[in-house]
Input
Amino acid sequence: MTTALTRHEVHAVRTPDGALLHATVDGDDAAPVTVVLAHGWTLAQAAWDDVAALLAPDVAAGALRLVRYDQRGHGRSTWGGADPVSIDLLGEDLAAVLEALAPSGPVVLGGHSMGGMTIMALAAAHPELIGDRVRGVALVDTSAGELSHPPRNAVERLQEKLLPVVGAWAVAHARRVEGWRRRVPPSSPHHRRVVRGILYGTDATDDMVARGAEIMAGSSVRAFVAFYPALGAHDKAAALAELGTVPVEVLVGDSDKLTPVKHSGKLAEAIPTAHLQIVPGCGHMLPQERPDLVTDAIRRLLPSP
Output
């Protein structure tokens, strides 16, 4: 589809194990830089809609191309043959997206939550890309690891044993679980209260929470279950030095419960080129809660003309 101002394309990027990653590209191939945005766990590329809207004038002016994609098993992307999934696998998926949709020229990467971890995995596996192709990185509400801990008591030990069993049951009986989920849809006040309590800060509007709840409701039971252990196993602290050759913007909400401020603090300490911004009144969903700040950070990363 083409408009008078902005070229818009839809792609399916095939990974080595057969997953098809649904991607959208806005802007001209001749733009001087491509911005690639990776979303978080149980979300989809729509989680970047507000940032994309703020970047639309830059795209229309030919200042950048914008690439967004659904992580495997999320949105319109398929699963592929890999089992189990891992954050390292997502890093390889991002490499496939770059090869297919931004094979040349400068690139700026933005990652929210699991998307930020994806960028760290890319840097660990393909350090040659950082500084050569990748000229800047935005890490939003994310972490390099230590998201899980050894069980500290009998209850946690029992939870550790039961979780894989419960997860396997949920996937095997996904239709039944989805039926239960439909009984409390995103339009339900209870559903939105839970989502707000977990993901958003005090300044979030009801519309923000409603849109976030709708995006997450589109995720399958399998996406919830399969990626949970992958997040716990994620550990890329040793790879952060690879990002130190390019400018890095680190942003986090001051009331982020999933990847608290201390995780972003560790990123900023480990990456000498990082600039840390702690945003008051916000939680884990900064691309929605403060898209202006996230957009400004991305613009600061764009290479000079």
